[in-house]
């Protein structure tokens, strides 16, 4: 193989490994008959949840069927429950639907996964009926017999199947009125364990930036009350701007579920980020644990306060110290604290973090570079 061919192969490999997620919005956009359904998947944030899943079946309904649903005057949260019943946690292509063993099966839906569905109400019965018809029946509404398979829209075995069904699945439980999720950051941040951090946000005025980020999605890493207490002397040493930057550093302007944090390691921009490579930190999972690494300190997520798209709040065990405000211990040792600017108090020598973490981080990224270089070499050699 010629070098250019090897290079384009490499490029192709890189592209395919970075774009393996699907995009339900884009898939449905090709079919204007599903535009209302598609619109509501976006409005209810279900689209994001669908894109994050592997092995999934989306049962779309056309605009006429959707207008029956929207005419009911349900709240957006209730519509979300109804539509989540249309997303199966398993892969059903046309072939599999017509080959259901014993003619009938029951499948769990995303409504089941929300934990909002009592008992088995989050399940849908699939029946391979006479005459090649496939019928879908909500578990809590056995009398609904008018929902049948219409056609396959897209099949990517066994990642995502999008099919059209004839009607909306009418589940009394999913359609029951629900209370809207609490998106009031002010009250959410006052929940246990985050009070001290919340007080800092209000006294500094940084809370405003957090509040105005809610609509577009926000993730807050709130240091525990103990962590804030321990950090107080250092906090007091910061200028007003330094304090605000430090607080904004604990917010990320996108929603991140725990699953997303566990699976997407890498740099994360924060509300304090202005321009490239400023006030960011690295997310790194260690099995189920998630660590946040700045060049100065490594904090660990110790609990979830809220995780309800578009808002996620996690408790962390240490205050995140950005390198822009605090010297990394390695650097501090070299410079011996000389030339510190006024708002950059170096970390105490008694700190049990910093040194090792900074070294770890270097070692890790070095390891990664070596590993990818080896991979590239391997691939090139294999194909030349
Ligand atoms: C999915 O596709 C839509 C429409 O093409 C686009 O606006 C959106 O940003 C995409 N979402 C992701 C997560 O790529
Ligand atoms: C399904 O997803 C996996 C992993 O993301 C990917 O390797 C595979 O190519 C996908 N299959 C199809 C048909 O796209
Ligand atoms: C949010 O919660 C706070 C504290 O509980 C309350 O004072 C405020 O009125 C609420 N804001 C909205 C918009 O409901
Ligand atoms: C506060 O700043 C001063 C001067 O920069 C420094 O000597 C002192 O160690 C700092 N105190 C703390 C707790 O960081």
Automatic annotation (TrEMBL):
Pfam families membership: Fasciclin
Signal peptide segment: 1-21
Described function: May be a cell surface adhesion protein.
Entry-linked SUPFAM superfamilies: FAS1 domain
Keywords carried by this UniProt record: Cell membrane, Glycoprotein, GPI-anchor, Lipoprotein, Membrane, Proteoglycan, Repeat, Signal
Species, as recorded: Helianthus annuus (Common sunflower)
Biased composition (Acidic residues): 349-358
Similarity section: Belongs to the fasciclin-like AGP family.
Annotated compartments: Cell membrane
Mitochondrion recorded as keyword: no
Transmembrane segments: none
Domain FAS1, residue spans: 21-169, 181-320
Protein name: Fasciclin-like arabinogalactan protein
Membrane topology value: Lipid-anchor; GPI-anchor
Region feature (Disordered): 332-363
UniProt entry tagged with the keyword Zinc-finger: no
A cellular-component GO term for this protein: side of membrane
Predominant location category: membrane
